[in-house]
């Protein structure tokens, strides 16, 4: 039956060395086998008796005799007897998925070595877009346990892409490890923290791109601001907003914007918090819709107060001290001096405000190809409100020529956003679906099942993921699999070193 299938799929089937068609009788088949054995023995004898010179030139003796490598490891001592097993190459490719991979082509930045093909591995999400089936977006998810070289890979993406004219943006760098990279590339770093002069206003309106009309742009800015305010409030409150709270936020933002534009100022988070805290002003601004909006907004006012007072005081509630320079090759926002409190909500809120500021600056569709790197994004995963803002940004990014790179530890970080079927989980899964490229560095054994479930890994891939070393990852590019060893240039090793304090 296998022979018949092999006949049908003649191009795909593995070749059989001795094929005796059906219909020949047993004696004939035996005679054919004997002839083949005699011919093989004759050829063997001729090969071993031939002198070791060709055209007078001394040939080096063969490393191993024609019978193969000596010793028990050769499995040639006639002791290993396994039944012959034949399969089509299609089946073989399914059972051993890495054997038959042809590579992604030579376009893009050099990443390192494709371990199975022993070939160079290059990658450029923009070059692959539309070229391979199922590659629907340029976004990349990178997951792996601590210290496996995730940030090093992200930094190589950044460093090497600059040569292709891409710009690199790191909206939140909680460890401050991107600053040397930005400096080396001639880019800028904005450091935020208590006592530091740097301030960013996440409600800043980016200059209107030439290709967008004034009315559309005003609507776009309003949408972004509302999304940010809603996400911040939801994260501090730890719950969804009620309908009246949504209205209150709307009304407060519009009031603040009208007042600010009358004095040619940019609205601040503190202005929104103050308006929410003024029930009479809210009620009169809401007009017929009112219905005691002021009372309903009390929780909101307290939630936004956290952004204005306390640990984040001043950082995101003042006019920005930096203007965005679209010509700089790289920009990172260093949040390492924010200090780690017992709960990291403050850091997470800061990461969100910093991202919102940078993303609105990146809203120019003519800004060229850009990488936006969310290192340590796993911190944001626990907050459904922040995920929602992030996903909205990702949906926009394809039209803007932006490739997002999200770095997390475990794939189950995505599951912490909520229980199965919840809104948070749906958002996290949507974010995963929005990444055509998933790079999996080593995962803990207890995480493998979750990873396999989310990414549809085969058992061979699961086994591979649990044994990966530093810098080595399983790349799933639109369903195709590669094991790639990321190779660092000596200069990169020094520049990317995060182990310095451990040496
Ligand atoms: N491909 C590689 N070859 C050699 N060394 C590497 C490679 N990748 C990373 N390293 C080294 O490993 C160390 C840790 O790397 P890195 O900080 O990128 O890990 P990480 O996965 O981002 O860790 P964390 O989860 O703590 O952020 C660095 O000092 C880096 O120089
Ligand atoms: Mg890292």
UniProtKB/TrEMBL annotation:
Ranges that cross the membrane: none
Low complexity composition bias: residue spans: 37-55
Superkingdom of source: Bacteria
Sections of the chain in a coiled coil: none
Disordered: annotated segments: 1-78
Span of the signal peptide: none
Keywords carried by this UniProt record: ATP-binding, Nucleotide-binding
InterPro entries hit by this protein: P-loop_NTPase (IPR027417)
One example GO MF annotation: ATP binding
Name the record gives this protein: ATP-binding protein
